[in-house]
Amino acid sequence: MKKYTLLLLLLFVQFITAYAQPNIVLIISDDHAYQAISAYGGRLAQTPSIDRIANEGAIFKKAYVANSICGPSRACILTGKFSHKNGFKDNRSTFDFNQNSFAKALQQAGYQTAWIGKMHLGENTPQGFDYYSILPGQGQYYNPDFLQTGNTKKRYEGYVTNVIEDLAEDWLDQRDAQKPFCLVIGHKATHRTWMPAIEDLGRFDSVNFPTPPTFYDDYSSRQAAAVQDMTIDKTMRLGYDLKMFEENQRPAFLNRMTEEQKTAWNAYYDRIYKSFKEKNLSGKALIEWKFQRYLKDYLATAASLDRNIGRTLDYLDRHGLSKNTIVIYMSDQGFYMGEHGWFDKRFMYEPSFRTPMMAKFPGVIQPGSEVNGDVMNIDIAPTLLELARTKIPAEMQGTSFYPLLTGKKKTVRDAMYYHYYEKGEHSVSPHFGLKTGRYKLIRFYDMVDSWELFDLENDPDELHNIYNEPASAGLVKKLKKDLIGLIKKYKDNEAEVLFHKQI
Ligand code: SGN
Ligand code: CA
Question: For the domain 420-500, what is the CATH code?
């Protein structure tokens, strides 16, 4: 009899574990390019912790964003809606927290929720999070301030990526262990101006990075690419971005550093500056020197990011949480690591439209699997809600990719829609477009008025705009029909008017 009771108890525990709502850890970094992640085959640097998520779970080869810029991307992730529906179209917007979000839906489903780190959604008080500790705006790399639940502001000494992880672990320590949780960790790294932690200064000094094949792109056949302001050559600044300063022109950001941080920082960059001056570079040699310095600093911020993601994974292991927790790692968008001669993002071209993404969830996601179906950042919210076994609000425009995680399906969408709005910094013309498996059709409007069409199979680097070629006429007609179909489906009324506007 005793044996049966024990067996029943065991079955009951198994049943409860299998059906318990899983915990969710969503890690969103800022501007982290898939080219800089070793799990993607990138050879620029090793990212062992991020790769660990891919190895223990799945790597997404075709994850894309609806609007390739910080705040808008996070608003898409949170709401499961495109920018024209969630209202946060560019970084100057302020998010309307009165609308629904995965965080609010999870709270209603019994979750405790927290957002810690960079959020970048404007001035309004966050809703949907039992706890938040967020960087104001872009935040600071050194000794950052945080806005916390209850409208308090607190400064923490240390390097931002470490501090964010510390705060995330503190929250996990203090949470109610009886309830499932959803924790969003928003990292500032690898955002401009790429300030490494003291311990990572010089980490890549002995490495010479290869320039990408499109580094000296001449932008022929692509008007919008020709008028942007985001080249390593002209836009990237020697002082501001690459920290090359005369001793008597030290930058203001040093003022926040402790004496110890300042001394180590100046010792390192003064040495680089001295050797830079001695070289007296110009022309291509100067551009390539800037490229090297850019990558060294960027990848050093990524090294700290990767270490701290390792800390998150270790915490979950140490506390027996890994088994029932889905961990998703993604960036808010992709980034140019010198492709087309650029840094920054915004364009619907692959390096910025695509974003790195991987997820692990033992028992559900097969370790070492590869997801090749297209997914978008607006799909995150419905996916999380399906995982939590709660209702997906009808207004969410994304599609849950849960069947891709379990391997039940290979695709959840045939085509992807994109709309970028911001005008100003970096001079990228607003545009919208569609990507099917093989083709990409883009309509630039406002700063430049043009259409672009790329055959990604024959031209993966998107150098040849074939929109105006007579042989493309039939294809253009078909893709335009698909594009207007998506515009109507997603009710992007502004784009519908622009679509019909004659050039
Ligand atoms: C800042 C950066 C830009 C960057 C935007 C948007 N300039 O304005 O280079 O494109 O953020 O980035 S900086 O001089 O302030 O570094 S986003 O990731 O926040 O969208
Ligand atoms: Ca960003």
Answer: 3.30.1120.10
